[in-house]
Amino acid sequence: MRRILTSPVFVALVAGIMAVVAVGFIAWQQFGGSQGSLSSDKVIVPATDIRGDFNLVNSAGDHVTPGDFPGQYLLVYFGYSYCPDVCPTDLAIVGQAMDILEESDATAAAKVQPIFITVDPARDGPDTVGVFAETFHPRLVGLTGTDAEIADAASSYRVYYARRDMDDGNYLMDHSAFTYLVGPDGAVIGIFKHDTAPEDMAEGMADMVAG
């Protein structure tokens, strides 16, 4: 038993579980100590006023702000291209949800702009975020910036992230894994949890955009 408890695999597993718990607790605090109310079982309406903002760089090297998408609903996800599992899973869901919405309600889909913001600007430059984003959906815009610009953007959405160094010299980024639906006025009107089914995300977006 002692060998199991002290094995590298067991220690890494416990560290991973603790990281997930820590991220969840921090997110719970940041959303006002409550998940808010459910407009349906598809999307969380935040209990506190969250107004996302950013001034970042796209794959072409142009600075982008929410003002570049007038009248649009923004579907925003924070992650990084070196993420081993969570980010690819969530972004695949975003892409599938957009496809479903485009097929079921093209008018509503045209009002939604999906955006990916990296929390690892050191490795995710403009070219990298552009290619990475397009892997999941042709309309998904990848954004990066300086450390300070990323920190400001994450803070406005109350996103938690932190670097975690590995024994082999590489590092991972711990981060909250929510997808934010932002209204045209900049207020977050819906939050989708990690592993939300794409059908549920599409339905939630349709309800929020129509409402």
TrEMBL record:
Cu cation binds at C83, C87, H175. Keywords: Copper, Disulfide bond, Membrane, Metal-binding, Transmembrane, Transmembrane helix. CDD domains: SCO. InterPro entries: SCO1/SenC, Thioredoxin-like_sf. Disulfide bonds join C83-C87. The keyword Zinc does not apply. PANTHER family: ELECTRON TRANSPORT PROTIN SCO1/SENC FAMILY MEMBER, LINALOOL DEHYDRATASE_ISOMERASE DOMAIN-CONTAINING PROTEIN. Belongs to the SCO1/2 family. This is SCO family protein. It comes from Hwanghaeella grinnelliae.
